[in-house]
Write a structure and sequence with these properties.
226 residues, mainly alpha, Rossmann fold, three-stranded parallel sheet, two-stranded parallel sheet, 9 helices, NAD(P)-bd_dom_sf, Lipid_A_modif_metabolic_enz, Epimerase_deHydtase, Nucleoside-diphosphate-sugar epimerase
């Protein structure tokens, strides 16, 4: 669906006289984790490792192919972890754990994760629609402040006015637990690193994230939730 639906949309857009199409992809087209001191940039090799990221990568290629034959302007944005209203998966799970005051066994995790507030992502997409230099590029985006998972939990707890009950469980034990429960991918997203370099995005588009991590978390978590 990602691939064929995107291809059809691009073709119909070009036929209808649409000038530019901005495609929201995923940083996962580059893989699942980064090495220490080696953030990804948009020119790094694509190494998608699951069905979702492979479909996004193939959809990107279909867009470029359609653009080449029609003159349609294409911009690709690859966000990392997005947080804000409506998020699911690990971010929503962390929110619930913090809100309920549960012990969180991530105190010994020493990693780095790039993330982007929904407000920042929307602001960048708007810039990609308007900026003359955006077409023909793939852009990586983040808030510009990479956090470890424990730092993220503490920041979320602060925004919610709750204590961060972090337990120092070794990451090796967490990975073993993930393997035993068939949740290795979920655990790895909590203990592994994934860092992007948004510098070229800032340079090309003259863009800076308008919202800091603290502001983004406060906007999302500042109101009481069940």
């Amino acid at each position: 669906m990602n691939v064929e639906g995107t291809r059809r949309l691009a073709r119909q857009a070009a036929q209808s006289g649409v000038r530019r199409l901005v495609f929201l992809s995923t940083v996962k087209v580059h893989g699942e984790s980064t090495s220490p001191g080696r953030p990804w940039n948009a020119n790094d090799e694509a190494r998608p490792q699951d069905a979702y990221s492979r479909s996004k990568w193939e959809a990107e290629q279909s867009l470029w192919n359609e653009a080449a034959g029609s003159g349609l302007e294409v911009v690709v944005v690859r966000p990392p972890l997005v947080y804000g209203p409506g998020v699911r998966a690990n971010m929503e799970r962390l929110r619930r754990w913090v809100a309920q005051g549960l012990p969180i066994p991530l105190g010994s995790v020493d990693n780095r994760r790039s993330l982007v507030a929904l407000d920042n992502l929307v602001d960048l997409l708007a810039r990609c629609i308007e900026h003359a230099d955006a077409p023909g590029h793939s852009f990586l985006v983040s808030d510009g402040q990479d956090l470890s998972t424990p730092e993220l939990v503490c920041a979320m707890a602060s925004a919610m006015g709750r204590p961060a009950r972090l337990l120092p469980v070794p990451p090796a034990c967490l990975r073993l637990a993930g393997w035993l429960t068939a949740r290795s991918a979920e655990v790895e997203r909590l203990v592994g690193s994934l860092v992007v370099d948004p510098g070229p995005t800032h340079t090309t588009l003259g863009w800076q994230p308008p919202v800091t991590v603290t502001q983004g978390l406060n906007r999302w978590l500042g109101e009481p939730r069940p």
